[in-house]
Please model this.
Amino acid sequence: MVATLEGTIDAGELKDLVNSLSEAQARQTIDSVVFEVSACEVMDLDEFAELQKAVRTAEWLGLRCIVAGLRPGIVAYIVSSGLELGTLRTALDLELALEELAADSDEREPESEPEPEQADEPELEPDSFRPL
Model:
């Protein structure tokens, strides 16, 4: 699923988005989400913290999350602020985020297990049985 965020990131909108994501995940219709923020020209620390909370909540619900499209100026501002980023997964743009999720899915695909080989059991002739 792609969640496109535009303009100012509002805590209430993010909360509604996370609720929608949890409902979709509960119905097993999604297993990952890209928070696409390239339309956000500016983002202050409070907005970024709200975005981080939404990502963490979605991850705790079992979704794989990537934030895509953070502008270089926003990244420089956030890094210079000293804000703890944790393990936030990011991608330069939406296309790269989707490629990364597709690669993750390929790695997570269970390999088909080989059929167990049946051990050749020696056939016993009826004459080979002797009472003890």
